[in-house]
């Protein structure tokens, strides 16, 4: 059962009627009946008054920008090219509860994932979509995920009634009309398809949030999204495509990861590329945005083995980033891009006199303005009596990477970039050292990536914090069983001639007084150390959980990178092996895999067991907290 919608009876008439002669010609020129069949079916079913077909031409791109202002989905701000968009008050983040896989009765996907019987789910979403675009204009857009003309490229088709979605996608993704035009599809499954409608609007925002649904049909490579506007639920080519790409990658022997891609400068002209997976609020964007290094992508990476090497490409060409705490001191490059003329969409920030404001921007905010709650004033509370922040915690900016000074020249390289290191970053107050390298690929995937956790901050959940398990930081997007996902990762490494080093980082280690042990800029040093390690240019200390830096090397790097004196006392505090916490973590992770994951790979337990033995042996010899000196 692929799709419950019947074929359009008179396709040509329907397309001419909805898309007018001009749009019809653009579709005809694709010479791609599988694509136009799909479009016709959904135009007939969603029934917009008209539909605009976006080719790759500048004129079409501008039409969408202009319409977004005319329709009020975006408002022009004072600065040239800047606009603001608001999502509904209760539509400010990904809706995990209503994001489901449409699951055929003979398939299972694992207890971790939300799913609904396929027939039931398709019926429901089909009902929601029926005539949902009546009275509106639809936008038919074509994108290319990954660099063009490359092994990485995946064609993606978006049908939406939101100019905000279409405009965001124009900033975030490469044009794909030409890709569709030059490619013959045997089957609709060969391209990704996204059908979105914000549903009826009230005050410019989705009115029927209770009908918000994001349903993924993995067999058909189609995702439906209704009655929502927030980007993470609606921008098809982003997280909705990521779920499809994870499944596709699994079938084809490559990987789709929730990772940044960045180049770290080594000596002379050397640039060494890393990918990094960190759950949210663990430092992912701030790492990829370090001003002295180079950015390929901040969110998603496609990883392929090409001639025995690990190559990575960014399916995106833009950033949909959290704006909170973006300040001239901490994020000078983003700050510059979003405070100078150029194309930027702000979402869910505070607006006053045509200017955007957000929490943590490093200057005083106005006491009133317009935000995601409508008219806002200091002290305003919502219906439940909760104070409304001036800007939402998840307020965002949308920009092109090419508009950032730290853009990497290889963003569009059809072969991607060669990856020498993979970083897993967690928020962890008491276990992981600030930086550590695994013994080998398997050790890294299993004890670092698969054991990734993030701690909720003490401000929200009591002092000790709660740890959330998030393997490879990819849990929200997995569309295959965790067992399979982990096995794929292991197998992938086995195919590489010289697998990259796998590191863990932890920017949030604390001392016994609950004080952070590291400064915000120390990550710049860890990156340089990792860069050197991937070239085997520094030695390291072998501990039971991985290799850690030697004091002398860090002393030199702190001096060179930050102009800071790094004391041996700090080193000892930061890099001591905390054995009881490590042992507790191993037990925690084992329990999670036993209880929550069906038939977790045996190799995972074996590797954790080996680590446990090494830790216990060290404990016997040196006690609970072991100074790195002991391992030298
Ligand atoms: C994330 O939450 O991981 C994001 C933003 O990158 S969203 O588009 O909502 O997924
Ligand atoms: Mn993300």
CATH architecture grouping of the largest domain = Alpha-Beta Complex
Helical residues, percent: 25-40%
Mean of the pLDDT scores? Answer: 96
Number of strand segments: 35
List the total number of helices.
18
Main sheet: strands, sense, barrel: 9 strands, mixed
What is the highest CATH level, the class of the largest domain?
Answer: Alpha Beta
Task: Explain how this protein is built.
With 632 residues, the protein is an alpha+beta fold. It has three domains: 11-73 and 94-252, Phosphoenolpyruvate Carboxykinase, domain 1 (3-Layer(aba) Sandwich); 256-317 and 411-631, Phosphoenolpyruvate Carboxykinase, domain 3; 319-403, Phosphoenolpyruvate Carboxykinase, domain 2, CATH 2.170.8. It is built from 18 helices and 35 strands. β22 (350-352) and β23 (355-357) form a beta hairpin. α3 (58-71) packs across α5. The longest helix has 21 residues, at 602-622. 50% of the residues are buried. The model is unreliable at 458-463 (pLDDT under 50). The structure holds sulfopyruvate and manganese (II) ion. Sulfopyruvate is lined by residues 94, 231-232, 238-239, 280, 299, 320. Sulfopyruvate binds at residues 94, 231-232, 238-239, 280, 299, 320. It holds the Pfam family PEPCK_N.
């Amino acid at each position: 059962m692929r799709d419950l919608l019947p074929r359009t009876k008179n396709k040509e008439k329907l397309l001419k009627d909805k898309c007018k002669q001009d749009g019809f010609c653009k579709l005809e020129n694709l010479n791609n009946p599988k694509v136009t069949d799909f479009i016709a079916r959904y135009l007939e079913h969603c029934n917009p008054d008209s539909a605009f077909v976006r080719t790759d031409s500048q004129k079409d791109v501008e039409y969408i920008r202009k319409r977004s202002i005319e329709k009020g989905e975006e408002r022009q701000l004072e600065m040239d090219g800047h606009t603001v968009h608001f999502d509904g008050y209760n539509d400010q983040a990904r809706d995990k509860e209503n994001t489901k896989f449409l699951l055929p009765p003979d398939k299972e996907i694992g207890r971790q994932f939300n799913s609904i019987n396929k027939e039931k789910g398709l019926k429901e979403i089909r009902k929601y979509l029926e005539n949902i675009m009546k009275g509106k204009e639809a936008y038919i857009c074509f994108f290319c995920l990954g660099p063009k003309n490359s092994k990485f490229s995946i064609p993606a088709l978006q049908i939406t009634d939101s100019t905000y979605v279409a405009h965001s996608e124009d900033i975030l993704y490469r044009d794909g009309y030409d890709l569709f035009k030059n490619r013959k599809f045997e089957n609709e499954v060969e391209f990704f398809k996204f059908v979105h409608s914000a549903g009826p609007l009230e005050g410019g925002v989705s009115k029927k949030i209770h009908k918000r649904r994001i349903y993924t049909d993995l067999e058909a490579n189609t995702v439906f999204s209704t009655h929502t506007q927030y980007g993470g639920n609606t921008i098809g080519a982003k997280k909705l495509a990521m779920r499809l790409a994870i499944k596709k990658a699994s079938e084809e022997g490559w990987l789709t990861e929730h990772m940044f891609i960045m180049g770290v400068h080594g000596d002379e002209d050397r640039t060494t590329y890393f990918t990094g997976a960190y759950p949210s609020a663990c430092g992912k964007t701030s790492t990829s945005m370090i001003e002295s290094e180079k950015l390929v992508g901040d969110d998603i990476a496609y990883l392929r083995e090409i001639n025995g090497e690990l190559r990575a490409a960014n399916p995106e060409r833009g950033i949909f980033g959290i704006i909170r705490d973006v300040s001239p001191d901490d994020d000078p490059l983003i700050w510059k891009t979003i405070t100078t003329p150029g194309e930027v969409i702000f979402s869910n920030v505070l607006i006053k006199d045509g200017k955007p404001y957000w929490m943590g921007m490093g200057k005083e905010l106005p006491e009133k303005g317009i935000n995601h709650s409508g008219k806002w004033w200091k002290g305003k509370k919502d219906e439940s009596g909760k104070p409304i922040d001036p800007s939402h915690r998840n307020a965002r900016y949308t920009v092109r990477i090419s508009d950032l000074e730290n853009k990497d020249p290889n963003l569009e390289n059809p072969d991607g970039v060669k990856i020498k290191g993979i970083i897993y970053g967690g928020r962890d107050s008491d276990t992981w050292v600030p930086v550590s390298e695994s013994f080998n690929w398997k050790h890294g995937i299993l004890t670092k990536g698969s054991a990734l956790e993030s701690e909720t901050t003490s401000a929200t959940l009591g002092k000790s914090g709660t740890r959330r398990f998030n393997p490879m930081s990819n849990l929200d997007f997995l569309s295959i069983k965790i067992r399979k996902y982990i096995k794929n990762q292991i197998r992938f490494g086995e195919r590489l001639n010289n697998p990259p080093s796998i590191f863990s980082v932890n920017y949030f280690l604390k001392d016994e007084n609950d004080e952070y042990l590291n400064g915000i800029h120390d990550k710049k040093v860890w990156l340089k150390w990792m860069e050197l390690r991937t070239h085997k240019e520094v030695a390291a200390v072998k501990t039971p959980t991985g290799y850690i830096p030697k004091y002398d090397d860090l002393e030199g790097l702190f001096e060179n990178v930050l102009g800071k004196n790094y004391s041996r006392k700090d080193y000892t505090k930061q890099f001591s092996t905390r054995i009881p916490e490590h042992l507790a973590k191993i037990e925690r992770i084992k329990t999670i895999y036993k209880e929550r994951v069906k038939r977790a790979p045996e190799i995972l337990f074996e590797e954790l067991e080996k680590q446990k033995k090494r830790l216990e042996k060290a404990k016997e010899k040196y006690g609970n907290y072991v100074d790195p000196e002991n391992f030298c």
